[in-house]
Amino acid sequence: MGLEYRQRLPRRGSRLVRRQAEDRRETFYDFADEYLGVVEQLWKGERFAHHGQWFDVEGVLSGPHPGGRPLLVSASVSPRGQRFAATHCDYLFTVVIGEDSWPKLRADLAAHADEAGRERPPEVIVIGDLLVREKPGEARAEYDLIMSTRHEAAQKIWSAAKSKIHRGNEKQAEPLELVGTTREVADTILRLRERVGLSGVMFRMPLWHASEGERIGPVLDILEREGVWTRPEHRGFSW
Q1: In this structure, are residues 121 and 110 in contact, taking their beta carbons and an 8 Å threshold?
Q2: Alpha carbons 218 and 234: distance in angstroms, whole number
Q3: How many helices (H) and strands (E) does the chain have?
Q4: Cα torsion for 214, 234, 73, 62, to the nearest 10°?
Q5: Got the DSSP string for 158-215?
Q6: Cα–Cα distance list, 43 to 4, 49, 71, 233 (Å)
Q7: pTM as predicted
Q8: What is the rounded CA–CA span in Å between residue 122 and residue 236?
């Protein structure tokens, strides 16, 4: 499949033409590397020329320009995707298998960032299943029941969510389980931050209800008191 993107600007603007490219998985990140390299040059508002495999750019982008460099987030579990994130992005959103995999992930990101001439690798955000209950053991029992449900529709949802992080019968990664009391969940996050350098968590709630979302607040309160989380209104940005 071929795609073409043209941007028509005044005479003093830029001319951007994407060349024909096959939609192949093995070339996706190569294309994305070149694309972001071009975009980051355009954001500078300076005249430049680029003639690459997929893009031809000459001139200067007259506007609009972002008010500073936007935060870039990449979601990937593959080594090539991690190299892409380390080259361009501020955050890598991923899933990992257990604590033993973290040192290699951190080392790989640092090496890729160094190759790209970046001062530091991207921060790592992982997905975590969140289920909080008041009594010890209550959340674990309920979570295990949800995961083992025989309800056909529910099984389809969980199978689709997990299929992307499995390759055949081999488990590539799995979501972090944040299951327990408010204190237990907060302590799990704090422990992972101390032991493996966990930067952030994107919560996934097995049960969708307003009351489930309200249970996140007390966990964040503990993290704030421990000095590892700052409210968005105090830091000026959401991430």
Answers
A1: yes
A2: 18
A3: 9, 11
A4: 130
A5: HHHHHHTTEETTEE--B-EEEEE-HHHHHHHHHHHHHHH---EEEEE-SS--HHHHHT
A6: 21, 14, 13, 27
A7: 0.71
A8: 19
157 three-class SS: helix
What sign does the CA torsion over 206, 100, 228, 70 have? negative
Q: What angle do CA 10, 15, 17 make, to 5 degrees?
A: 145
Q: What b/e string do you get for 138-164 counting C-beta neighbours within 10 Å, with b at 16 or more? A: ebeeebeeeeeeeeeeeeeeeeeeeee
pLDDT tens readout for residues 84-116: 999 999 999 887 766 778 888 889 999 999 999
Q: Are 135 and 40 in contact (CB under 8 A)?
A: no
As beta bridge partners, residue 174 has 96
Q: Nearest CA to 226 among 199, 202, 190? A: 190
